[in-house]
């Protein structure tokens, strides 16, 4: 009868999920390192806009999904991965959000900020996060309620309350649409008065990891490729004591492709600066691709 329908049609063991995510990230990381060292010849295929996708991206995703899908699909888990551009909407079921190589443009240039990002969402909240940076062999991990770690050691966000003491990270996506660029520059200008320092890494996941470990204090971005950019970072940042919000300070939505996150006092100040600008500019993600689903490739971000 009705009772049977209420029981979740999936199994969820967070330890098993974390172990599998770490193994998959490290396997993909080894492949990425080999690619970076030229052992894998890679051809750059073009993605819409100025974004880049490489053979390495696709091979890394095959490695990750090849490891996770056989283990977790029978347990009722779903998958959203960047290169596969999955179309199905996010549900409450356990959903893996995978970015095989976040910071593709960096990777192609040899700029050392790129990583593997594997997050597990349950009831639309990130409960497991793994970010692995192969070039520095740094492994960021988190499980809901158990804190965040870097190579096994606990990490915490900084205790920063004032904007003048803060380092803030932001990335400018690959979108060159005039409306988007205008919104970007106006938002950037609004955050700057009295701000300590600003940096741009070109990888959403690494920005979130760097805030979690205390290298920086907040990160915001107007448009990323999709939920695979944020899922792992969400778990890691939250477990390190950070907060995640919408750009205007409202509720964070992993599917929105927008984020403002970090240390609460700094996030609050940035939200108060960004909100009036965003209210004025309206919808800046105006492109031929339309909505925030797979069509997001039309304005996929440089942090994809």
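-> sequence recovered:
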């Amino acid at each position: 009868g009705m009772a049977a329908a209420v029981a979740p049609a999936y199994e969820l063991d967070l330890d098993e999920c974390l172990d599998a995510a770490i193994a998959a990230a490290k396997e993909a990381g080894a492949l990425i390192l080999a690619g970076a060292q030229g052992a894998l010849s890679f051809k750059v295929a073009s993605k819409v806009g100025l974004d880049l996708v490489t053979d390495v991206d696709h091979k890394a995703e095959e490695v990750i999904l090849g490891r996770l899908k056989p283990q977790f699909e029978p347990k009722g888990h779903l998958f959203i991965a960047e290169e596969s551009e999955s179309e199905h909407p996010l549900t409450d079921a356990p959903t893996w959000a995978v970015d095989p190589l976040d910071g593709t443009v960096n990777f192609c240039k040899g700029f050392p900020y790129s990583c593997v990002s594997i997050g597990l969402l349950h009831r639309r909240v990130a409960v497991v996060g793994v970010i692995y940076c192969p070039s520095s062999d740094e492994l960021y991990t988190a499980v809901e309620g158990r804190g965040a770690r870097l190579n096994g050691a606990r990490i915490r966000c900084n205790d920063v309350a004032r904007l003048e003491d803060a380092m803030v990270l932001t990335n400018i996506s690959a979108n060159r649409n005039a409306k988007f660029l205008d919104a970007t520059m106006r938002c950037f200008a609004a955050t700057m008065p009295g701000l300590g320092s600003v940096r741009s890494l070109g990888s959403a996941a690494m920005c979130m990891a760097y805030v979690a470990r205390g290298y920086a204090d907040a990160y915001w971005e107007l448009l990323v490729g999709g939920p695979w950019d944020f899922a792992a970072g969400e778990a890691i940042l939250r477990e390190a004591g950070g907060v995640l919000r919408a750009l205007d300070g409202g509720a964070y939505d992993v599917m929105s492709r927008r984020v403002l996150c970090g240390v609460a006092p700094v996030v609050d100040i940035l939200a108060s600066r960004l909100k009036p600008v965003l209210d004025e500019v309206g919808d800046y993600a105006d492109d031929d691709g339309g909505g925030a689903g797979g069509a997001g490739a039309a304005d996929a971000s440089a942090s994809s």
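The chain has a mean pLDDT of 89.
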